C-alpha cells in the first residue's frame, strides 16, 4: 500500500506514519508514493486503528435518493381552419355615356390677289477668246521630281553624327590619371635605356672620360627627362603627394 493512501485511510499526516516507523527502526521515504510492506501496514493499523473503524467506514456507501418528477404535458391548442368568407357580389358596372364634342371645320386660306415680282437679271458672261494650244511638237514638259521620303531620311541620318553618351566625370578623371601614369612610365623606361647605354659605353671605352665629360653626360640625361604635367584634380594632387 502507498503511504499517501494509508494516511488518508487513517486520517493522519504521512509524517506521523514515517515517525512511527522510524521509532520501530524502519526507515522509509516521506513521499506520498512510497510503498509500505504489508507487515508494516498491519503494524500501523494495530497502532492507530486497533478497532478497525476505518475499514467499516469505507464499506458504508451512501445512496442518494433519486427524485423523479412527473412532467405533465401542456395542453396544445388546436387551431381550427378559418371558414370561407363569402365575398359580396361585385357591383355591376354602370354604362358611362361618352359626350363627343362637335367637329369644327376650318376653312382654307383664300387667295385674294397675286403680286408679280420682277425676274432677276442674268449676268452677261464675257466671250473668251480661245488661245492657240501649244503644238505637240514642242519640247515635253518636265514633271517636278518627287523626292523619296526614304532618301531624305537617309540624308538626315548621314548629316547628323551619332551622339556619344556623356561620360561620368569620375571615369574621365581616372582615364586622365591612367594616361599620365603611362606617360610617366614611358619616360622612366627611356631614362633607364639611356642609363644602360651610358654604362655600356663606359665599359667599352678603355680611357675613362674626364669629369667635365661626365658632367655634360649627366646634363644631357637630365634634359631628356620628361616631367609629367601637374595634376589639376584633388585626387591627382593627393596621389602626387603620396608618391613624393
Q: What is the count of helical runs?
A: 8
Counting copies of identical and different chains, the oligomeric state is: single chain
What is the residue-averaged pLDDT?
68
Give me the count of strands: 0
Percent in helix = 40-55%
What percentage of the residues does DSSP assign to strands (E)?
under 5%
Biggest sheet architecture: none
Q: Give the overall form.
A: flat
Helices and strands, in order, run as: HHHHHHHH
Low-confidence runs: 56-67, 134-139
Q: Structural class of the secondary structure composition?
A: mainly alpha
Radius of gyration using CA atoms only:
70 Å
- Compute the separation of the termini in Å: 100 Å
Can you describe what's shown?
- The structure is a single chain.
- The chain has helices spanning 3-10, 14-23, 38-48, 53-59, 149-159, 169-204, 211-224, 234-243.
- It is mainly α.
- Among the domains are: 3-55, no CATH class; 169-229, no CATH class.
- Mean pLDDT is 68; it is low at 56-67 and 134-139.
Sum up the structure in keywords:
mainly alpha; 244 residues; 8 helices; flat
Summarize the structure.
The protein is mainly alpha-helical and 244 residues long. 44% of the residues lie in helices and 0% in strands.
Chain-wise SSE layout:
Elements: H1 3-10, H2 14-23, H3 38-48, H4 53-59, H5 149-159, H6 169-204, H7 211-224, H8 234-243
Amino acid at each position: 500500500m502507498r503511504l499517501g493512501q494509508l494516511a488518508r485511510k487513517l486520517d493522519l499526516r504521512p509524517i506521523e506514519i514515517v515517525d512511527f516507523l522510524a521509532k520501530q527502526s524502519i526507515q522509509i521515504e516521506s513521499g506520498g508514493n512510497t510503498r509500505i510492506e504489508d507487515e508494516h501496514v498491519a503494524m500501523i493499523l494495530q497502532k492507530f486503528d486497533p478497532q478497525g473503524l476505518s475499514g467499516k467506514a469505507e464499506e458504508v456507501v451512501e445512496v442518494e435518493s433519486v427524485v423523479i418528477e412527473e412532467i405533465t404535458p401542456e395542453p396544445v391548442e388546436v387551431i381550427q381552419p378559418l371558414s370561407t368568407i363569402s365575398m359580396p357580389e361585385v357591383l355591376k358596372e354602370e354604362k358611362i355615356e361618352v359626350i363627343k364634342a362637335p367637329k369644327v371645320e376650318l376653312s382654307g386660306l383664300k387667295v385674294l390677289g397675286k403680286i408679280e415680282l420682277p425676274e432677276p437679271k442674268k449676268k452677261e458672261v464675257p466671250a473668251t477668246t480661245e488661245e492657240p494650244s501649244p503644238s505637240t511638237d514642242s519640247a515635253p514638259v518636265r514633271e517636278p521630281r518627287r523626292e523619296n521620303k526614304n532618301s531624305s531620311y537617309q540624308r538626315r541620318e548621314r548629316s547628323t553624327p551619332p551622339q556619344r553618351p556623356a561620360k561620368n566625370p569620375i571615369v574621365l578623371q581616372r582615364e586622365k590619371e591612367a594616361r599620365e601614369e603611362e606617360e610617366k612610365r614611358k619616360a622612366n623606361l627611356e631614362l633607364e635605356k639611356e642609363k644602360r647605354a651610358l654604362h655600356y659605353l663606359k665599359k667599352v671605352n678603355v680611357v675613362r672620360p674626364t669629369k667635365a665629360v661626365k658632367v655634360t653626360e649627366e646634363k644631357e640625361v637630365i634634359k631628356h627627362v620628361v616631367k609629367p604635367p601637374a595634376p589639376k584634380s584633388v585626387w591627382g594632387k593627393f596621389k602626387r603627394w603620396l608618391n613624393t
